[in-house]
Design goal:
Elements (H helix, E strand, L loop, with lengths): L2 E5 L5 H12 L2 E3 L1 H10 L3 H11 L6 H12 L6 E4 L5 H13 L6 E6 L2 H9 L1 E3 L6 E3 L26 H25 L2 E5 L4 H11 L3
Parallel strand pairs: 1-3, 1-4, 2-3, 4-7
Antiparallel strand pairs: 5-6
Helix pairs in contact: 1-8, 2-3, 6-7
This protein binds zinc ion (ZN).
Protein backbone atom coordinates (compact mmCIF):
# COMPACT_ATOMS: atom_id res chain seq x y z
CA UNK A 1 0.00 0.00 0.00
CA UNK A 2 1.21 3.53 -0.84
CA UNK A 3 -0.30 6.26 1.25
CA UNK A 4 -0.15 10.05 0.89
CA UNK A 5 -0.64 12.23 3.95
CA UNK A 6 -1.82 15.79 3.23
CA UNK A 7 -2.23 18.72 5.60
CA UNK A 8 -1.01 22.25 6.12
CA UNK A 9 2.22 22.98 7.98
CA UNK A 10 1.38 22.51 11.67
CA UNK A 11 -1.35 19.90 11.11
CA UNK A 12 0.66 17.18 12.88
CA UNK A 13 1.35 15.28 9.67
CA UNK A 14 4.84 14.21 10.71
CA UNK A 15 3.69 12.77 14.03
CA UNK A 16 0.87 10.83 12.38
CA UNK A 17 3.18 9.66 9.61
CA UNK A 18 5.57 8.14 12.16
CA UNK A 19 2.75 6.42 14.07
CA UNK A 20 0.99 5.07 10.96
CA UNK A 21 4.15 3.91 9.19
CA UNK A 22 5.20 1.94 12.30
CA UNK A 23 1.73 0.35 12.65
CA UNK A 24 1.47 -0.61 8.98
CA UNK A 25 5.17 -1.32 8.27
CA UNK A 26 5.39 1.36 5.59
CA UNK A 27 8.52 3.33 4.77
CA UNK A 28 8.12 6.93 5.90
CA UNK A 29 9.42 9.54 3.44
CA UNK A 30 9.37 13.16 4.51
CA UNK A 31 11.44 15.49 2.33
CA UNK A 32 11.48 17.99 5.21
CA UNK A 33 12.98 15.50 7.70
CA UNK A 34 15.47 14.32 5.09
CA UNK A 35 16.56 17.92 4.44
CA UNK A 36 17.04 18.73 8.14
CA UNK A 37 19.02 15.53 8.68
CA UNK A 38 21.29 16.25 5.70
CA UNK A 39 21.72 19.90 6.73
CA UNK A 40 22.60 18.81 10.28
CA UNK A 41 25.27 16.48 8.90
CA UNK A 42 26.45 19.24 6.51
CA UNK A 43 26.38 16.91 3.48
CA UNK A 44 26.51 18.30 -0.10
CA UNK A 45 22.77 17.61 -0.38
CA UNK A 46 22.27 19.47 2.90
CA UNK A 47 24.07 22.50 1.53
CA UNK A 48 22.08 22.29 -1.69
CA UNK A 49 18.73 22.42 0.14
CA UNK A 50 19.91 24.76 2.93
CA UNK A 51 19.81 27.83 0.70
CA UNK A 52 16.14 27.26 -0.12
CA UNK A 53 14.96 26.29 3.36
CA UNK A 54 16.59 29.16 5.27
CA UNK A 55 14.77 31.62 2.99
CA UNK A 56 11.45 29.81 3.41
CA UNK A 57 11.50 28.83 -0.26
CA UNK A 58 10.45 25.42 -1.49
CA UNK A 59 13.11 23.01 -2.66
CA UNK A 60 12.68 22.42 -6.43
CA UNK A 61 10.61 19.45 -7.61
CA UNK A 62 13.51 18.02 -9.58
CA UNK A 63 15.68 17.72 -6.45
CA UNK A 64 12.93 16.06 -4.39
CA UNK A 65 12.14 13.57 -7.16
CA UNK A 66 15.84 12.75 -7.44
CA UNK A 67 16.01 12.03 -3.69
CA UNK A 68 12.87 9.87 -3.82
CA UNK A 69 14.22 7.74 -6.65
CA UNK A 70 17.71 7.41 -5.14
CA UNK A 71 16.40 6.39 -1.74
CA UNK A 72 13.52 4.08 -2.64
CA UNK A 73 14.06 2.50 -6.05
CA UNK A 74 15.11 -0.77 -4.38
CA UNK A 75 12.44 -0.57 -1.64
CA UNK A 76 9.86 -3.39 -1.58
CA UNK A 77 7.62 -2.10 1.20
CA UNK A 78 4.84 0.42 0.64
CA UNK A 79 5.55 4.12 1.13
CA UNK A 80 3.98 6.64 3.44
CA UNK A 81 4.55 10.04 1.85
CA UNK A 82 4.49 13.01 4.20
CA UNK A 83 5.05 16.51 2.79
CA UNK A 84 5.23 15.06 -0.70
CA UNK A 85 3.72 15.45 -3.26
CA UNK A 86 3.26 19.17 -2.70
CA UNK A 87 2.49 20.40 -6.22
CA UNK A 88 0.54 19.02 -9.19
CA UNK A 89 3.88 18.57 -11.00
CA UNK A 90 5.02 16.34 -8.14
CA UNK A 91 1.74 14.39 -8.29
CA UNK A 92 2.43 13.65 -11.95
CA UNK A 93 6.05 12.67 -11.32
CA UNK A 94 5.02 10.44 -8.42
CA UNK A 95 2.30 8.71 -10.47
CA UNK A 96 4.78 8.07 -13.29
CA UNK A 97 7.38 6.63 -10.93
CA UNK A 98 4.82 4.44 -9.11
CA UNK A 99 3.38 3.23 -12.43
CA UNK A 100 6.89 2.15 -13.49
CA UNK A 101 6.86 -0.03 -10.36
CA UNK A 102 3.33 -1.34 -11.17
CA UNK A 103 1.99 0.60 -8.19
CA UNK A 104 -0.18 3.64 -7.47
CA UNK A 105 -1.32 5.93 -4.65
CA UNK A 106 -3.83 3.70 -2.84
CA UNK A 107 -5.23 6.17 -0.33
CA UNK A 108 -4.88 9.81 0.71
CA UNK A 109 -5.32 11.00 4.28
CA UNK A 110 -6.05 14.73 4.67
CA UNK A 111 -5.53 16.34 8.09
CA UNK A 112 -7.73 19.41 7.97
CA UNK A 113 -6.56 22.26 10.25
CA UNK A 114 -7.94 25.86 10.29
CA UNK A 115 -5.35 28.38 9.12
CA UNK A 116 -5.31 30.48 12.33
CA UNK A 117 -4.60 27.36 14.40
CA UNK A 118 -1.82 26.35 12.00
CA UNK A 119 -0.09 29.73 12.43
CA UNK A 120 -0.34 29.55 16.24
CA UNK A 121 1.16 26.06 16.34
CA UNK A 122 3.98 26.85 13.90
CA UNK A 123 5.09 29.95 15.76
CA UNK A 124 5.30 27.85 18.95
CA UNK A 125 7.54 25.19 17.47
CA UNK A 126 10.97 24.60 19.04
CA UNK A 127 13.68 22.10 18.29
CA UNK A 128 16.78 20.86 20.12
CA UNK A 129 19.76 21.33 17.79
CA UNK A 130 21.71 18.85 19.94
CA UNK A 131 19.50 15.76 19.67
CA UNK A 132 16.73 16.73 17.24
CA UNK A 133 13.82 16.49 19.73
CA UNK A 134 10.89 18.65 18.62
CA UNK A 135 8.71 20.64 21.04
CA UNK A 136 5.74 22.95 20.72
CA UNK A 137 4.92 25.73 23.18
CA UNK A 138 1.22 25.21 22.30
CA UNK A 139 0.90 21.42 22.15
CA UNK A 140 3.99 19.80 23.74
CA UNK A 141 6.14 22.00 26.00
CA UNK A 142 9.45 20.83 27.49
CA UNK A 143 9.37 20.25 31.29
CA UNK A 144 11.74 23.17 31.90
CA UNK A 145 11.47 26.39 29.91
CA UNK A 146 13.78 26.32 26.84
CA UNK A 147 15.63 23.18 28.02
CA UNK A 148 15.57 19.85 26.18
CA UNK A 149 13.99 17.01 28.24
CA UNK A 150 16.22 14.44 26.61
CA UNK A 151 19.73 15.96 26.55
CA UNK A 152 19.35 19.15 28.70
CA UNK A 153 20.64 21.31 25.81
CA UNK A 154 19.02 24.66 24.92
CA UNK A 155 16.09 24.49 22.50
CA UNK A 156 15.39 27.13 19.88
CA UNK A 157 13.06 28.11 17.03
CA UNK A 158 14.05 26.93 13.59
CA UNK A 159 14.88 29.50 10.92
CA UNK A 160 11.70 28.61 9.03
CA UNK A 161 9.40 29.13 12.04
CA UNK A 162 9.74 32.91 12.37
CA UNK A 163 6.45 34.82 11.97
CA UNK A 164 7.01 36.13 8.43
CA UNK A 165 8.25 32.82 7.10
CA UNK A 166 5.35 30.96 8.74
CA UNK A 167 2.80 33.17 6.96
CA UNK A 168 4.70 32.76 3.72
CA UNK A 169 4.72 28.96 4.07
CA UNK A 170 0.97 28.91 4.73
CA UNK A 171 0.40 31.03 1.61
CA UNK A 172 2.61 28.77 -0.49
CA UNK A 173 0.74 25.75 0.89
CA UNK A 174 -2.62 27.30 -0.01
CA UNK A 175 -1.53 28.15 -3.55
CA UNK A 176 0.33 24.97 -4.39
CA UNK A 177 -1.06 22.14 -2.29
CA UNK A 178 -4.78 22.87 -2.03
CA UNK A 179 -5.33 21.91 -5.69
CA UNK A 180 -4.06 18.44 -4.70
CA UNK A 181 -6.91 18.12 -2.24
CA UNK A 182 -9.57 18.52 -4.93
CA UNK A 183 -7.60 16.30 -7.28
CA UNK A 184 -7.30 13.43 -4.83
CA UNK A 185 -10.79 13.91 -3.40
CA UNK A 186 -12.36 13.11 -6.76
CA UNK A 187 -9.86 10.49 -7.85
CA UNK A 188 -8.65 8.36 -4.94
CA UNK A 189 -9.71 6.72 -1.68
CA UNK A 190 -9.80 10.00 0.31
CA UNK A 191 -9.96 10.15 4.11
CA UNK A 192 -10.52 13.54 5.74
CA UNK A 193 -9.77 13.98 9.47
CA UNK A 194 -10.15 16.99 11.79
CA UNK A 195 -6.58 17.82 12.85
CA UNK A 196 -7.65 19.69 16.01
CA UNK A 197 -8.36 16.38 17.80
CA UNK A 198 -5.89 14.69 20.20
CA UNK A 199 -3.02 12.87 18.45
CA UNK A 200 -4.04 9.34 19.48
CA UNK A 201 -7.64 9.90 18.36
CA UNK A 202 -6.39 10.98 14.95
CA UNK A 203 -4.15 7.91 14.60
CA UNK A 204 -7.03 5.61 15.60
CA UNK A 205 -9.39 7.20 13.08
CA UNK A 206 -6.89 6.93 10.23
CA UNK A 207 -6.29 3.24 10.96
CA UNK A 208 -10.01 2.53 11.29
CA UNK A 209 -10.89 4.23 8.01
CA UNK A 210 -8.13 2.76 5.84
CA UNK A 211 -9.40 -0.28 4.00
CA UNK A 212 -6.66 -2.68 5.04
ZN1 LIG B 1 18.12 17.53 23.09
Amino acid sequence: MNLVLLGSPGSGKGTQARAISTKLNLVHFSPGDTFWAEMGKKTPLGQEVGDYVSQGRLVPDSLIIRILKEKFSAEKRGLLLDGFPRTMEQVEELDKWLASRSAAVDAVVYLNLPEAEAIKRLEGRRVCPGCGMVYNLVTSKPLLENVCDKCSGPISARADDSANIVKQRIMVYRDQTEPLISHYRSDTEFIEIKATQPLQAITAQILARLKL
